[in-house]
């Protein structure tokens, strides 16, 4: 009987401590996504109509100024990777993100580290990159998921295209 009470007390204490710790855990500001990149240039499409895409965003700073009710904005750093048959596009962008309830919009610019394959050799180069997009947050249980559509552009038009992603936030 005493052992049962001690076991019940220990279980209640463990659950209480876990709940208290869970309430203190704050979001990391990290988002991970995976999806497809659909290039719009004929050169990139000759490699494949869709390329595997994945990426991450890290929230750098909340921006606090005259936001309307239900809206917020922040700066984030994003890194994406799109690959197909040895070709690669790796844009790194600083983004402005604004949210209104479950919808968000983003615009960013940065640098793209790219690799293209020619008929006899490969070429690695860097170029300006930019992106515009919108997303929708979906909460399933305690997991914050999202869907995102982005226009990914670069000074080199071979790297233009649409990105369609699904992801999770931590």
Descriptive report:
There is one protein chain. This protein is an alpha+beta fold and 170 residues long. The protein has a single domain (29-169), classed as Beta Barrel (Porin), CATH 2.40.160.20. 17% of the residues lie in helices and 62% in strands. It has two helices and eight strands; from the N terminus they run αβαβββββββ. It has helices at residues 2-24, 42-47; strands at 30-39, 51-63, 71-84, 87-100, 103-117, 122-140, 143-154, 161-169. The chain has an eight-stranded antiparallel β-barrel. It is elongated, with a radius of gyration of 22 Å. Mean pLDDT is 85; it is low at 9-24.
Keywords:
alpha+beta, 8-stranded antiparallel barrel
**What topology, given as strand order, has the largest sheet?**
1-2-3-4-5-6-7-8
**And the CATH topology?**
Porin
Taking Cα atoms only, what radius of gyration do you get, to the nearest Å? Answer: 22 Å
Number of strands: 8
* Spatial separation of the terminal alpha carbons: 43 Å
Query: Structural class, please?
Result: alpha+beta
Main sheet overview: 8 strands, antiparallel, barrel
Low-confidence stretches: 9-24
Estimate the mean pLDDT confidence.
85
CATH class: Mainly Beta
- What's the architecture in CATH terms? Beta Barrel
Brief overview, please?
The chain has 170 residues and is α+β, with helices and mostly antiparallel strands.
Secondary structure layout plus pairing:
Elements: H1 2-24, E1 30-39, H2 42-47, E2 51-63, E3 71-84, E4 87-100, E5 103-117, E6 122-140, E7 143-154, E8 161-169
Antiparallel strand pairs: 1-2, 1-8, 2-3, 3-4, 4-5, 5-6, 6-7, 7-8
């Amino acid at each position: 009987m005493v052992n049962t009470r001690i076991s019940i007390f220990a279980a209640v204490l463990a659950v209480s401590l876990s709940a208290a710790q869970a309430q203190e855990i704050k979001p990391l500001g990290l988002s991970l996504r995976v999806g497809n990149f659909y290039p719009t240039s004929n050169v990139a499409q000759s490699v494949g109509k869709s390329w595997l895409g994945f990426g991450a965003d890290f929230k750098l700073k909340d921006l606090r100024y005259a936001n309307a009710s239900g809206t917020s904005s922040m700066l984030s750093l994003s890194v994406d990777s799109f690959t197909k048959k040895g070709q690669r596009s790796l844009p790194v962008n600083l983004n402005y993100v604004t949210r209104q309830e479950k919808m968000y919009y983003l615009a960013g610019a940065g640098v793209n580290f790219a690799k293209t394959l020619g008929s006899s050799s490969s070429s690695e180069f860097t170029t300006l990159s930019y992106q515009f997009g919108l997303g929708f947050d979906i909460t399933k249980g305690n997991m914050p998921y999202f869907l995102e559509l982005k226009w990914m552009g670069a000074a080199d038009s071979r790297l233009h295209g649409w990105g369609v992603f699904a992801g999770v936030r931590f």
